[in-house]
Amino acid sequence: MQSNQRLIVGLGNPGKEYEKTRHNVGFEVVELFAKLNHIPLTKRSGRAIVGDGLVSDVRVFVMEPQTYMNLSGEAAAAFLRQKPIAPTEIIVITDDINLPVGKIRIRAGGSDGGHNGLKSLTAHLHTKDYPRMRIGVGGPPDTAFQVDFVLGKFNPTDRKLVDETIERAVAALETWVREGIAPAMNKFNG
To answer: Which residues pair with 44 in a beta bridge?
Structure first.
């Protein structure tokens, strides 16, 4: 049985210099979701920017942690102390270098896959059983340059594909809010 509240956490890094980088696709998804669902993403709550609105009679909070990627769990945990929401009613959106550009993978829980933002969330939520949506950003040609790669911007061809993927990700979030994780996985994985 689902509750009537959800939390969508988009992962990224704060600051103009990180806008439109591979590491910030989680922020981009949250921003488009908030815009299309008329949720102002303007409130400060601890170390996060938060929005609050209704989607199909479900109260939805959207969050962009302002702690930098590796400390995202701190911001989420602080928010959840004020608004207790079950881990199964939280979804985290993040980049994934192990997926091709434009691919979406939604899971009900699981490992962090080496992603530091997910590691932080798992540590602070004290569980790995929370939904997550990974957005493929492709991988660096040499793993020695992984940090530079994820903090870099997409080339124009990949940017167009990522913009389309962000729209699909928003549709997947709307399905998750209305119908739950299984229908979102069935419709949008692949």
So the answer is: 49
Helices vs strands, H then E, count in the chain? 6, 7
Of residues 83, 72, 68, 65, the one with CA closest to residue 4: 83
The rounded distance, in Å, linking the Cα atoms of 145 and 21 is 15
Give the whole-angstrom CA distance, residue 124 versus residue 98: 24
The pTM of the whole model exceeds 0.85? yes
The contacts of residue 175 (CB under 8 Å, 6+ apart) are 183, 184, 187, 188
- Paired tokens of 189: 């994985």
Element (H, E) at 64: strand 58-65
pLDDT digits (tens, 9 = 90+) for 174-189: 999 999 999 999 999 9
The C-alpha atoms of residue 48 and residue 56 are separated, in whole angstroms, by 25
Spatial neighbors of 155 by CB under 8 A, at least 6 apart, are: none
Other C-beta atoms closer than 10 Å to the C-beta of 12 total 28
| Of 23, 38, 115, 126, catalytic | 23
Give the integer Cα–Cα distance in Å for 190 and 187: 9
38 is an active site residue: no
Residue-wise pLDDT tens digits, 95-144? 999 999 999 999 999 988 888 889 999 999 999 999 999 999 988 777 65
